[in-house]
Structure prediction request, 160 residues.
Amino acid sequence: MPLDALEFFAHLEQERYRAIILHAEPEKGPSVTQFAKKVCVQLSGKYLDLLGLFIQTKELSEHIDRFSPEEFRELLIEQSKGHTLLVIDRADFLLDTWSRAEKKDFFGLLDKNQWDGFKEGMKARLMICLQTSLEIEGLQISDSQDQSRVFRLSDFNDIL
Prediction:
C-alpha cells in the first residue's frame, strides 16, 4: 500500500535527519517532476530544477566538471534558507561527473550525521529526485527507526 506523501513529509519534519531520495525509471522523469512540484505546492516547499539552474547560470555551467559534493552541499544550504522543504529535481547529471569517492561523499550527505536538522542551515526537509540505478537501489540510508529513506515514486500515493 502506497505511503501518504503528505503524512510522510509531516513525519519527516520530526526526524533529525530529514533527507530522502526519490527515484524512478528514466521514462518516469516527467511523473517524478510532477509529483515533486505537487509536494512543493502542498507543503509550501521550494522546487529546484538543478539541471535547469546549471544551464541558466554561466558560473555553474562552466564549473560543472569540477563541481564537488561539498559545493553541492553548500548550494543546498543556500537554496534551503527560509524553507521547510527543498526538492531537488534532475540532479543525475552531477552523479555522472563524480568519481566513486565523490558519489560516496554525496550519499553520505544524505545519510545520518550529515543533513542534520539540528544544525543551523539544514532545518529544511530535503528530497533529491534521481533516476533509478543499481547504485541507488543498493543504498542503505535509514531514519531513526531504521526505515529506508530511499523511495521509488510508486512507494507514494499521488497528490491531488
Summary: Strands lie at 19-24, 46-49, 85-89, 125-131, 150-152.
